[in-house]
Amino acid sequence: MTYFGGLMLDGTPYKLPVEVDLQFDLANHQWERAAYTEFVVTKSRQTREMLECIEDIRVGARDEERIDVFPAKAPNSPVVMFIHGGWWRGTTRKEWSYMAYGFHQLGYAVVISDYTLCPKVTIPDITQASRAAVAWAYEHAETINGNKDRLFVCGHSAGGQQAGMIAVTDWTKYGLPADAVKGVVPMSGVFDMRVMQSGFLQPYIQLTGDTARTESALFNIPDVAPPIMVFLGDEESIEFHRQAEVFAEAWRAKGHRAEFMAMENEDHSSSIFAAGDPDSPACKAMVEFFESC
Questions:
Q1: How far apart are CA 49 and CA 290, in angstroms?
Q2: Cα separations (Å) of 201 from 122, 193, 198?
Q3: What is the pLDDT of residues 159-188, one digit of tens each?
């Protein structure tokens, strides 16, 4: 993946690693980062205080592999699990509790999942933690007023990559029905992970040639798969749009349903910050999609 005489970096339309970084280095281009951090911390704390919240349920072998659960108001409600972002190396479920509020107000039981961060683990370890959380949500749905036959998953950024991996999972290998997950919304995700090997995150996520492919939902689309809605802000970088469009097209090419949603006037961060509001276009669009699955 070295630049030689105009050759492109493997699996990308770019020639130099700096071009990849320009597409993905959000941390150094988020000018109002302090305000965003204060927003998610405060709103998440308020959400845990306002709603019934069962915290810190262990679902995996590692201590960080836990979930926080917000039971639905009424029995037999649909269940949605959210997988947080942070480039696989930052934040925890506690900063993302606010995402439960919108779904909960619209009648859902909500699971906020978590995982150990890179470089302590690899991305395949994170995927395994996300799958364990889905298995918990399916098997324990009734205990949180949920309906296991109406289980949905969404995730943002690194969580969008994880949501893609949830969508391509063969759940029969985990003792669940093949259609355990009824619909998935990958938000601002990366679906061809080869591009990440050339960027600033590679020292943290340490992808190999094998894991770059096995952790790319694009290369693992099965014959049986749930409907997806590929979601992003319309002001996100060219690479996020390219990834989303290629993945949606590949999903359809396998005969599966793939919707595409680019939220007007939203970027990578603002689209997810709005999604915790039940009246936001983002939250309404996801719930409308889930109801159609």
A1: 27
A2: 12, 11, 8
A3: 999 999 999 999 999 999 999 999 999 999
Contacts of 60 (CB under 8 A, 6+ apart): 66, 115, 128, 129, 132, 133
Give all strands of the β-sheet with 109-113 in edge-to-edge order. Answer: 54-58, 66-70, 109-113, 77-83, 146-156, 183-187, 228-233, 258-263
Tokens matching residue 92: 């925890």
> Angle formed by the axes of helices 17-24 and 238-253, to 10°?
90
CB 237 within 8 A of CB 185: no
- Of 268, 272, 252, nearest to 260 by C-alpha is 252
Distances 279 to 102, 103, 139 between C-alpha atoms, Å: 8, 10, 30
Asked if 112 and 93 touch (Cβ cutoff 8 Å), the reply is yes
Handedness of CA 112, 113, 118, 122 (dihedral sign): negative
Which amino acid is located at 24 in the chain? F
* Separation of alpha carbons 231 and 240, rounded Å: 10
Read off the tokens for 161: 């990559």
- Average pLDDT, 10 consecutive residues per value, the chain (293 residues): 55 75 63 68 95 98 98 98 96 96 98 98 98 98 98 97 98 97 97 91 95 98 97 88 95 98 82 90 96 98
At 34 the pLDDT is 60
Report pLDDT for 3: 40
> Token match 């949606």: residue?
248
Q: What is the pLDDT of residues 209-223, one digit of tens each?
A: 999 999 999 999 999
**Beta partners for residue 185, in sequence order:** 154
